[in-house]
Amino acid sequence: MSVPPQPPPTPQPAAPGLRTGTLTTADISFFVVSAAAPLTVMAGVAPIAIMLGGIGAPAGYLLAGITLTVFAVGFTTMSRHVGHGGGFYAYITRGLGRPAGMGAALLAMLGYNGMEIGVYGLLGSASQDTALALFGVEIPWLPVSLAGLVLIWYLGYRSIDFGAKVLGVLLVAETGILLLLAGGVLLDGGASGLTFDSFTPPNVAVPGMAAVLACAFAAFTGFESTAIYRREARDPRRTIPRATFIAVAFLGLFYAFIVWTVIQAYGSDKVVQAATDDAGGLFFAAITTYVGAWAADLMHVLIVSSVIASLLAFHNAINRYTLSLTEEGLLPPVLGRIHPRHRSPYLAGAAQTAVGAVVVAGFALAGADPYTQLLLWVNTPGMIGLMALQLLAAAAVLCYFRRIRHREGVWRTVVAPVAAVLLLGAAIALVTANVELFSGAGTATNILLVSLVPAVFVLGLALALRLRRTRPEVYARFAAEPDGETPAAREPAAL
């Protein structure tokens, strides 16, 4: 009895993945610079830097930019050898080993979640200020923050190129209003003529410069996230390094230029007193004087849009970290589902939004202030966590190139990484020594906030050791290179 031939099995459609080859250098730069929220940083933090460090504050932003450029030299060199899309933890795994890599992965989740969720408090606070300034009405902050959560979820749910377009528009608007202010000051010649006293050694080498540098390094937060978009970038071996250097160079030069022009607006002899008297109104008063009251009103509105841009940039970064950790087997597989049409990690975005809603609602129920507590307390460990990731990545670059054969130069693989380790270590020391500037809290609270960073890293080390013993297959494939990478990118991860 013959058996009729069976039809071949119907091939199952492949699961949807991220939209590859979509993001250009400009798109990734928009994500990175938007995360830093230039308008919010300038109008909200730069006056404090001037108040503490005097007219030498612009030089502090340049020094921070130079430090991070040195870091980017080694980081972008290593990006040519690492094909993994998991961001910093993949680099740290290559150079310092899987335990350090898992510690870095958890640290990244703390850092990016802390930077985003805290900013929902700023969204509520900034919206309150804008409504009061423009319409003379007081609005509750919680509904605004919750509405922001829904908006950011939707924008993250849509395709990555849609998000890039939104960020491009918002970033042009917020940088445009600052350039409008600068143009008004330069055309008018400032309060008493244009001078470059801000960059002379006596005004830079002042005791308050340590606090200025702490503020300046915080203003670059998020610039390192270029590597997260590797899988969605066009020609990532070129796009990622270019976007990294563009972002850090733009931020360093732009921040220094804008702070210098505001000093010229008031005059070197009067700006410190003006910042002391009304730090929050320093930029608004300047743009009212040199451009017009309408520009100050527009600046109020654009600060809100600047906050929204920052939230979206961090939200997208968190979603891609979550996706990577799901693929590593460290998070539930359901979080790794990709939307079939938008090609976005939509369930990771929904989970992150839910976490944000819980934290925001918890602070509100406790009667916390949206700015001095929700923003500052949640942002502080996030900021220090991301700086710690940069330090670990710089050390990983140095160790990685000592372990493999390569044709990269000594400047890129030894000198720059060593300098980056020293400079970033000093930057973290400055930030932690001046942590009260960022948290606005007392000693006990500050100790707790700073301690979260090493505690989370140690938790990651413990998780790695446990996985090595109980789930060796998960441990072995952690941060493994995808198929199709070059031999240089296939160097084995450290043990």
TrEMBL record:
InterPro entries found in the cross-reference section: AA/rel_permease1, APC_superfamily
UniProt keyword list: Cell membrane, Membrane, Transmembrane, Transmembrane helix
Locations listed in the record: Cell membrane
Record field: transmembrane: 28-52, 58-76, 88-112, 132-154, 166-185, 205-223, 243-263, 283-314, 346-368, 374-401, 413-435, 447-467
Topology term for the membrane: Multi-pass membrane protein
Keyword Transmembrane helix: yes
Top-rank taxon: Bacteria
Principal subcellular localization: membrane
Protein name: APC family permease
Species whose genome carries this gene: Streptomyces koyangensis
Organism lineage: Bacteria, Bacillati, Actinomycetota, Actinomycetes, Kitasatosporales
